[in-house]
Amino acid sequence: MRFFRLLKIIFVVLSFGLDEFMLAHHRMRWLQTPLNLLLFMRDISQPRAVRLRLALEKLGPIFVKFGQMLSTRRDLMPTDLADELAKLQDQVPPFSSQLAVSLLETTYKRPLQDVFKSFEQTPVASASVAQVHFGVLHDGREVAVKILRPGIALTIAHDIALIKVAADLIEWLWADGRRLKPRRVIEEFEKHLSDELDLTREAANGSQLRRNFADSGLLLVPEMFWDYCTNDVMVMERMYGMPISQVDNLRAAGVDIPKLAANGVEIFYTQVFRDGFFHADMHPGNVQVAKDGRYIALDFGIMGTLTDIDKNYLAQNFIAFFQRDYKRVAEVHIESGWAPANTRVDELESAIRAVCEPIFDRPLREVSFGRVLLRLFQTSRRFGIEIQPQLVLLQKTLLNIEGLGLQLDPELDLWKTAKPWLERWMSEQVGWRGFIRAVKAEAPRYATLLPHLPRLLHQRLNETPFPYAERAVLMLLKQQQRRNTLLTIIVGILLLQTLWILLG
């Protein structure tokens, strides 16, 4: 099977003239004339980017998803290719309703009518990995049922193996191939696909996001019905909303569009900087709007995470951008480890200034955060900076958010909207408020540790070697030990009192 799949890939590659990517290398140029003579009937008049997009669509959904991911790696891709690959649409015909029913009955080991009071056999959505049906449980709860495509795991495994072979060829043929690490990109893509194939993981992601926004008036996340969720099937609350792309219909329904756009920015920064856990696939197909104007998040297969260190450095970067403090931006890149430790601050500062100054000369509403990150990623090649995978996901999401925001409200000033939020977040991380918050977070550990400090200190002092063990010296040391123990107890009591006040 893999052999025939490989033959099809080779045929499509040659049909769309994609061999030019390989033949551009000096080792392969001798093949150009024979191939042109052999394939004289093919039409390669369209630009290479268009031909690449059409070829990926021809090869099927997994290659389409790979092209979609590549379109976000603008630090790796030439601009013309990235722009064209961004047009890829993951539109896949649904599999049969009979097969969907059979899969559900196999999963639950009982007839479908015993599981659902009603089940709509015509799917409402179909993508490369799964499709969605509506239904009603016997207790009356309306649900959306996501079913994994049968045999998709094997198809993905075969295609990923072939894509890895292509990555090896890129590293061998292309001078810049090793630095761009195509194998690592493929492994990242494989990881995301693996996550999407486990619907239990997706349900857990949705459940976490719902918990994070439980008290929010901005975002609705469907409830997961865990008794009905497996690796191959996910059952969640059915949500009623209007696609966010239907701006005229939203306006007619009385939704405050400028407020909706600003709320989208706030939701994004709350996910990133407060929670470090963000929806990383916020294209219009995954976002709806409820009647009350709240966002509805759908499809949780791709989620991004950031550590506290990532969040802190990222916020410092953004605030330094606001203040046009390019030296601080360069320092943060080096301090975070994103740039090599031996990078000269002045050279990196100069490169960043060249990226940002032309942008700041334009009105703020015309400036894109995502484009700033993109330009910085492209500049990073010169300094050997390896782009962090979590930051690539963040940049992709930021571009999606900006696209949604500007589609809703072309006058939306993303920088003006974000700056107060970031400054407020930073003030909560440093200074007294940050200190108090950190102490509260560590209070349980301190409360457990403090009672043991006198004993631990006593043991440590007893273990201290005495090279001159004269009697008088030992007596002085024991006296000092008692004083240290007493001092430790006093400090411990003061700390406990402080914790009691803070936690009260």
TrEMBL record:
The keyword Transmembrane applies. Residues 87-333 form the ABC1 atypical kinase-like domain. SUPFAM superfamilies: Protein kinase-like (PK-like) (SSF56112). The chain crosses the membrane at residues 485-503. It holds the Pfam family ABC1. Keywords: ATP-binding, Cell inner membrane, Cell membrane, Kinase, Membrane, Nucleotide-binding, Transferase, Transmembrane, Transmembrane helix, Ubiquinone biosynthesis. It comes from the Bacteria. InterPro entries: ABC1_dom, Kinase-like_dom_sf, UbiB, UbiB_bact, UbiB_kinase. Pathway: Cofactor biosynthesis; ubiquinone biosynthesis [regulation]. Belongs to the protein kinase superfamily. ADCK protein kinase family. PANTHER family: CHAPERONE-ACTIVITY OF BC1 COMPLEX CABC1 -RELATED, PROTEIN ACTIVITY OF BC1 COMPLEX KINASE 7, CHLOROPLASTIC. This is 2-polyprenylphenol 6-hydroxylase.
